[in-house]
C-alpha cells in the first residue's frame, strides 16, 4: 500500500526525462521546483479553499443529521423506527452509478449544479446513511438512565441530546468525520459532474487539468497529487487517537 505513495513522492522530484527513463531510480538532483510549479498550475490555494468548503458543508451536515437520527431511531422502539432504519441501510446498497444521471438532472432543475454548497448538500444526502448506521449502534452502548436523569432535571429533547448525549459520541463522530472526509476529498466523479466552472474546481479536478491531449507532465501531476494529499493526512494525524478509539469501541459495543 505504501509503495505507490513512495513511488509518487520519488518521481515528483525528478525531471520528466528522468522519470520516463527509469521510474525506480533516484533523481540525479531533487527537483523541488516541481512543487512550486504544480502549486501555481493547479491554483492550489483556490482549489484547496473550494475543497475545504465542500468537505465542511458535507461533514457538518452529515454529523448533525445522522447523529440526531441515529440517536432517535436507536432510542425509539417500534415498527416505524425499524422500517426507517432499514430504509437507510437499504439505500447503502444502491450503486452511485445507477442514480448518477437522475441526480444530475435533478441538480439542473434545482439550479444547484455548479454550486459548491449544492455539491456539499448532495454529499450529505449520499453520506448520511452510513453515519446513521454507525451512530445507531454506538448509541446502544449509552445507558438510558442518562436520558431519564436529564429529563428529570428539566432538559428538553434537544438540550438532552446536545448537552448529554452528543459529547459521549465524540469517538464515533471522529471516525465518521475522517471516513467521510477521505471520501469527499478523494472523490472525482461527482465534482466532475456537478462543478461546471473551473474557478470552483476541487484539488483533484484541478490536477486533472494537467493531463494534456497529446502529452502529460507527470512530474507536475505527481507533485500536485502529493500536495492534495497532505491536508487530509494532517487531519488524520490530528484525529488519529479518536478515530482508533471510535473504531475499537464501536466494534466492542455495537
From TrEMBL:
Q: Which Pfam families match?
A: BPD_transp_1
Domain (ABC transmembrane type-1) spans 48-239
Write out the similarity annotation.
Belongs to the binding-protein-dependent transport system permease family.
Q: Does the keyword Membrane apply?
A: yes
One BP annotation, GO: transmembrane transport
The record's listing under PANTHER family reads: ABC TRANSPORTER PERMEASE PROTEIN MG189-RELATED-RELATED, SN-GLYCEROL-3-PHOSPHATE TRANSPORT SYSTEM PERMEASE PROTEIN UGPE
Topology of the protein relative to the lipid bilayer: Multi-pass membrane protein
Top-rank taxon, per record: Bacteria
Segments crossing the lipid bilayer: 52-71, 83-104, 116-139, 160-185, 218-239
Listed A to Z, the keywords are: Cell membrane, Membrane, Transmembrane, Transmembrane helix, Transport
The protein's name in its UniProt record: Carbohydrate ABC transporter permease
Query: Is Membrane one of the keywords?
Result: yes
Intracellular or extracellular location(s): Cell membrane
Q: What is its main location?
A: membrane
List, alphabetically, the GO terms of the cellular component aspect. plasma membrane
Amino acid at each position: 500500500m505504501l509503495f505507490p505513495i513512495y513511488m509518487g513522492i520519488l518521481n515528483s522530484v525528478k525531471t520528466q526525462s528522468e522519470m520516463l527513463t527509469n521510474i525506480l531510480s533516484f533523481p540525479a538532483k531533487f527537483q523541488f521546483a516541481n512543487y512550486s510549479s504544480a502549486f501555481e498550475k493547479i491554483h492550489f490555494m483556490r482549489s484547496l479553499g473550494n475543497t475545504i468548503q465542500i468537505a465542511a458543508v458535507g461533514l457538518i451536515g452529515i454529523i448533525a443529521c445522522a447523529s440526531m437520527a441515529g440517536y432517535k431511531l436507536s432510542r425509539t422502539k417500534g415498527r416505524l423506527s425499524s422500517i426507517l432504519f432499514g430504509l437507510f441501510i437499504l439505500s447503502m446498497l444502491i450503486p452511485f452509478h445507477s442514480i448518477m444521471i437522475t441526480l444530475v438532472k435533478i441538480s439542473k432543475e434545482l439550479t444547484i449544479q455548479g454550486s459548491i454548497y449544492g455539491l456539499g448538500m448532495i454529499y450529505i444526502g449520499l453520506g448520511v446513511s452510513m453515519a446513521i448506521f454507525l451512530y445507531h449502534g454506538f448509541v446502544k452502548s449509552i445507558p438510558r438512565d442518562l436520558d431519564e436523569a436529564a429529563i428529570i432535571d428539566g432538559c428538553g429533547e434537544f438540550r438532552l441530546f446536545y448537552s448529554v448525549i452528543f459529547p459521549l459520541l465524540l469517538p464515533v463522530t471522529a471516525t465518521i468525520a475522517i471516513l467521510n472526509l477521505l471520501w469527499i476529498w478523494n472523490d472525482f466523479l461527482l465534482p466532475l459532474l456537478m462543478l461546471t466552472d473551473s474557478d470552483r474546481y476541487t484539488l483533484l479536478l484541478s490536477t486533472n487539468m494537467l493531463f494534456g491531449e497529446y502529452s502529460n507532465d507527470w512530474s507536475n501531476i505527481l507533485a500536485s497529487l502529493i500536495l492534495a494529499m497532505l491536508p487530509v493526512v494532517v487531519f488524520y494525524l490530528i484525529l488519529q487517537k479518536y478515530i482508533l478509539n471510535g473504531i475499537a469501541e464501536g466494534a466492542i459495543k455495537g
